[in-house]
Amino acid sequence: MLTSSNPAPCSLLTLVVLLSLSVLPSITIISSSIQVTASIGDNQGEDDNGSEENTRNEESDGDEGDDDIDLDEMNLLQICCAWSDKISDGVLEYRISDEVDEISKQSVLNAIEDWDVLFDNLIFVEKQDDSEADVEIGFSDNDEDANDEEFNYGDSIAAGKTEFKFDSNGFVDSIEVTLSGSIFGNGFQNSLLEQIARHELGHVLGLGHANFDGNLMSTSTNGGAENVSTCEINGVLAANYWRLVTVSSSPEYPEADFVVC
Fold first, then answer.
1. How many CB atoms lie within 10 A of CB 22?
2. Confidence (pTM)
3. CATH superfamily placement of domain 14-53+70-260
4. I want to staple 178 with a disulfide (CB 3.0 to 4.6 A). Which of 55, 106, 161, 252 is the partner?
């Protein structure tokens, strides 16, 4: 069962998304709390600061006139947020930590490529100098999960963590992704690591979580999917419509909180 922590104030400019790995033999990935702050606006001027505060377990607030629609009966993918003008040139720069083996790095590169080929107006470019990248991707220590917690058979394991930083207008300014380097000292299979990385990159591109199985952004690998589907593509386009569709240089908030899959 999904839970959400107490909503954070709209002035909070940091968002953390945790993806945790169950210690059960079935290897079920579940998601812990996510606070979506700022940058989820309807662009209608109803919110004085152009943003609103939401949690992942949303009801139908913000959908005027939809009182007769039962969102619990629909397959929904949450839209989190939009990037700032840092991607106005159509480039999203990333860096993968040097402190990782080549096989694990290649798994992440494969996941990046899977997303990169889907959009004409945005490309991923690996940062070559020492300046800060838009997206920093690193791995936890071998004896810690992605949330810097020591492995404990009694606790869930954070397989991936995505931390957002927003600018003063509520647009994504930079992101740090941490992937768990192993589980109890044993590395993930390449296919699973790619799936976790692909999921985290979905967050990087503005997605929240799906409320149903069979989707990359689902909260369980057992009921989820390894590959990007049309649903995720539509979600990313909706999240960053200003750049990916209209090819504008001025960021705009997403006009919806979710897409129907």
1. 16
2. 0.75
3. Collagenase (Catalytic Domain) (3.40.390.10)
4. 161
